């Protein structure tokens, strides 16, 4: 409170009195705030004040008003987080009580996640971090991937995302935008520039920050977290920070901090009061330039494996006029190997579709990055008039669909736009995608004798039906009423 001079203390004191008695009216405009009006009024009617004093006094009122608002926002945020936490606990309890019941009572689509299934971890004017609910929150059928969490980060142009570390392994994928990432290793920070399609692993506990170095374009990053401390949960720890983001250092006792940092409490308080801008905030062009300067090419210089980013769009592993598939592989991308993770990106041409297919080992977490389309997946776990229940969902940006191991599915792009999908293949070691139509297909590969027995039909006639020239991506249906399907299963 260094900015208040002694002779201003009376109106400030009055202001505090009024202010503290009226907390809880957060929505009022600054101009209309009666406390502020009163304070300014008090300033103007102090007879012994000079004009300068009065101005100083009024400035004090505004400053206080700002601080009060800030505090109110912080309290609101705390209350909100606490409520969310409580809700989660209640739900967790209900989930445990329901665990004994059979799994066949699913009402809604347990594999489909949309906007409502994301919770906002934090939000500032300049960006936000959202985390998808635990997969098992929706259905026990997904308990095989309970310990994975999907999150997204959005940041406006020219912003800084404060350094923090996670109690989880994490992999970042740049869906849109241009960024610089800084990762603090033992003795120095390594910076890398990131472009659309770049993938980088952020090892657990590594302090990491980001810069959106583009002026106009929003930065959008999809993140997969693999929690290590508490299964299915991960947290961010902010060290370098202040009040907001709140540095975890300030939660220690002052005596210990004073001793650890060999500084008196006042000095520490001063330091930890400075940062109030939150986890994501705008920075100047000059700051962007200096904090996004990257040395060298980002290639690890000692002939060893690179710890830097690599791009998924290098070369498609499958490409025809109906679509293109890009995929990492475990041998070339050692960063992802021990995470047992493959990422792929499919760009399905408008009006086209995939062959019916399934993953032999992996569970696919599919996130729509652009365009519209439609998915059908069949599942034996949910009772239906058939042995397999068909789950159908329309796909649009922000939607996440989970296809568990072995579950056959087909994806269709709308007639208007290409459908672009990011896919995290979890438990990917040894995974293979098998299709039921196209140049290579499972039915064609089935030996003749078994094929005839299984279908009770001549093998060459069966092959005629399943074989075709295209592979994986195929022309879509002619008479497919996309709108109608989308409505029916939205
Ligand atoms: C997907 O394909 C379309 C058409 O070829 C192209 O314009 C678009 O840039 C592609 N998307 C990505 C992310 O490469
Ligand atoms: C795909 O989009 C192009 C250009 O917008 C359009 O000319 C074409 O007819 C579309 N394809 C289908 C199958 O609707
Ligand atoms: Cu199933």
TrEMBL record:
<dbReference type="InterPro" id="IPR014710">
    <property type="entry name" value="RmlC-like_jellyroll"/>
</dbReference>
<dbReference type="Pfam" id="PF00190">
    <property type="entry name" value="Cupin_1"/>
</dbReference>
<dbReference type="InterPro" id="IPR006045">
    <property type="entry name" value="Cupin_1"/>
</dbReference>
<dbReference type="InterPro" id="IPR011051">
    <property type="entry name" value="RmlC_Cupin_sf"/>
</dbReference>
<feature type="region of interest" description="Disordered">
    <location>
        <begin position="68"/>
        <end position="116"/>
    </location>
</feature>
<feature type="domain" description="Cupin type-1">
    <location>
        <begin position="310"/>
        <end position="463"/>
    </location>
</feature>
<feature type="domain" description="Cupin type-1">
    <location>
        <begin position="110"/>
        <end position="269"/>
    </location>
</feature>
<feature type="compositionally biased region" description="Acidic residues">
    <location>
        <begin position="99"/>
        <end position="116"/>
    </location>
</feature>
<feature type="compositionally biased region" description="Basic and acidic residues">
    <location>
        <begin position="72"/>
        <end position="98"/>
    </location>
</feature>
<feature type="signal peptide">
    <location>
        <begin position="1"/>
        <end position="24"/>
    </location>
</feature>
<keyword id="KW-0732">Signal</keyword>
<protein>
    <recommendedName>
        <fullName>Cupin type-1 domain-containing protein</fullName>
    </recommendedName>
</protein>
<dbReference type="InterPro" id="IPR050253">
    <property type="entry name" value="Seed_Storage-Functional"/>
</dbReference>
């Amino acid at each position: 409170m260094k900015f208040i001079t002694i002779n201003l203390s009376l109106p400030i004191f009055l202001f505090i009195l009024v202010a503290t008695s009226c907390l809880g009216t957060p929505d009022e405009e600054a101009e209309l705030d009666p406390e502020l009006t009163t304070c300014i009024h008090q300033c103007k009617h102090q007879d012994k004040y000079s004009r300068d004093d009065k101005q100083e006094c009024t400035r004090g009122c505004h400053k206080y008003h700002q601080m009060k608002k800030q505090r109110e926002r912080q309290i609101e945020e705390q209350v909100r987080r606490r409520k969310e936490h409580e809700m989660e606990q209640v739900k967790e309890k209900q989930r445990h009580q329901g665990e004994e019941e059979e799994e066949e009572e699913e009402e809604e689509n347990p594999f489909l996640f949309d906007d409502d299934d994301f919770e906002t971890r934090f939000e500032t004017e300049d960006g936000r971090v959202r985390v998808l609910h635990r997969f098992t929150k929706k259905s026990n059928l997904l308990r095989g991937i309970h310990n994975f969490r999907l999150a997204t980060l959005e940041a406006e142009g020219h912003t800084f995302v404060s350094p923090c570390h996670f109690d989880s392994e994490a992999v970042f994928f740049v869906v849109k935008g241009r960024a610089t990432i800084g990762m603090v290793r033992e003795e120095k920070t390594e910076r890398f520039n990131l472009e659309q399609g770049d993938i980088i692993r952020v090892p657990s506990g590594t302090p990491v920050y980001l810069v959106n170095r583009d002026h106009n374009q929003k930065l959008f990053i999809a993140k997969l977290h693999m929690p290590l401390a508490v299964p299915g949960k991960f947290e961010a720890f902010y060290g370098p920070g202040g009040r907001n983001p709140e540095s975890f250092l300030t939660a220690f006792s002052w005596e210990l901090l004073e001793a650890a940092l060999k500084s008196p409490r006042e000095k520490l308080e001063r330091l930890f009061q400075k940062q109030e801008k939150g986890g994501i905030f705008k920075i100047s062009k000059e700051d962007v330039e200096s904090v996004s300067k990257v040395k060298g090419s980002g290639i690890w210089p000692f002939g060893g494996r690179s710890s830097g980013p690599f791009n998924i769009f290098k070369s498609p592993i499958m490409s025809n006029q109906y679509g293109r598939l890009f995929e990492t592989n475990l041998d070339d991308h050692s960063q992802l190997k021990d995470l047992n993770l493959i990422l792929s990106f499919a760009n399905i041409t408008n009006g086209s579709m995939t062959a019916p297919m399934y993953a032999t080992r992996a569970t696919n977490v599919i996130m729509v990055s652009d365009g519209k389309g439609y998915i059908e997946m069949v599942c034996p776990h949910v009772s239906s008039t058939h042995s397999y229940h068909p789950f159908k969902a329309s796909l649009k940006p922000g939607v996440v669909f989970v296809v568990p191991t072995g579950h056959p599915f087909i994806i269709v792009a709308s007639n208007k736009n290409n459908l672009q999908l990011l896919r995290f293949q979890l438990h990917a070691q040894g995974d293979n995608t098998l299709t039921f139509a196209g140049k290579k297909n499972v039915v064609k590969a089935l030996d003749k004798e078994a094929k005839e027995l299984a279908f009770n039909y001549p093998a060459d006639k069966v092959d005629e039906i399943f074989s075709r020239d295209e592979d994986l991506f195929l022309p879509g249906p002619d008479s497919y009423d996309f709108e109608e399907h989308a409505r029916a299963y939205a």
